[in-house]
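One-letter codes give the sequence; each number marks local geometry. A record appears below:


***
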Amino acid sequence: QVPLVESGGGSVHPGGSLKLTCVHFIDEYPVRCMGWFRQGQGKEREEVAAIDSDGAAGYVNSVKGRFTITRDDNKNTLELQMNDLKPEDTAMYFCAASLTDYSLRFGMAIPPADQYDYWGQGTQVTVSS
């Protein structure tokens, strides 16, 4: 079974909103830090947002004030509310989970991709007029 499953992607106009949801099926170990990454066509995968086990969140500068990451550990879900979407937000969005807890308090940096243990298969977000 795929450990992480994303949903909620789609096509919107600039200024629109989408909410991405990730459900994880990781039962044998506690999931600590979780994050969202994205990869545009022909581009490298980049961090978008992350949230630690205490609920502290971090964001890449380009999405601050527009995106909000939340988690519900009772439902094993991670969400990304994306508002005021721009064409440059167009990408495949991936959910990731780490068994290591990285504190995001006090503006700590989002852990890079190689610090995550599990990945979803992605959901496409397209922003165009």
Remarks:
- The longest strand covers residues 18-24.
- Residues 81 and 124 are 14 Å apart (CA to CA).
- The chain has no helices and eleven strands.
- The chain has a mean pLDDT of 95.
